[in-house]
Amino acid sequence: MRYLVFIVGIIVLLQLPACNTMEGLGKDVQKLGKKIERKAEN
């Protein structure tokens, strides 16, 4: 589980520069949250 959190953190850090606006950042965080929820349900 820690490995998954580490990988997700790295992905988030790599994706942050790709966000040009706060709206884009919000959408990225929302997508990440949904992915984490799906992983937690399985």
Detailed description of the structure:
There is one protein chain. This protein has helices at residues 2-15, 22-41. The model has no long low-confidence stretch (mean pLDDT 80). The chain has one domain. It is mostly helical.
Stretches where pLDDT is under 50 for at least 5 consecutive residues are none
Q: Alpha-carbon distance between the termini?
A: 12 Å
Total strands? 0
Averaged pLDDT, please? 80
Strand and helix map with partners:
Blueprint: H1 2-15, H2 22-41
Task: Offer a concise description of the structure.
The protein is an all-alpha fold and 42 residues long. The chain has helices at 2-15, 22-41.
List keywords for this structure.
flat, 0% strand, 42 residues, 2 helices, 81% helix, mainly alpha
